[in-house]
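Protein details
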Amino acid sequence: NAHDLVAPMRHERSDLGIQGVVFSADGKCVVSWGDDKTARIWDSGTGKLRALLRHPSAVSGAVPSDDQRQALTWSIDRVVRLWNVDDAQQPVLVLPTHEYGVEGAALTHDKARILTWDANGTIRLWDARTGALSKALADGAGLAVRGATFNADDSRILVWDERSVRIWDSRRDTASEPIVWDAGNVHSAAF
């Protein structure tokens, strides 16, 4: 029940808004981010802060890995960062900027690849260990990508934009032709 909730999880600068919050896949941690240039990893059972991830600019989004040992963040400086939660002083990987800013990012379940997308339709797949670009699935198609996700075995990528839903084979060496559905005004999609 609502009275059993843990103590509130707060950012120090309450005058700078919290922009978002997401649970880990197993619900054991919560990641929050905001205009105070931080993302924070919390234990959802105790409310204890596990990691403070400092950025040079406001954080636009974040997502924890399935095992909660890593987190991806993206900020208004157009950069995606990969962090080790247990040693969060510096990111372990910083990906090159997206020209139109990063709208989102996703990490494969095995933590081997990172998917990023922007407001101009650029979708990129990166090697999470080296930061090398594996492939560009779409490069500036002009439609704002609203979201993307991997399926359970990381073999396919579901991407949705303002007008369509697309599925790519993520394991091919080159970008394959996606399966496309003209779906009108798409707000969300899931496997």
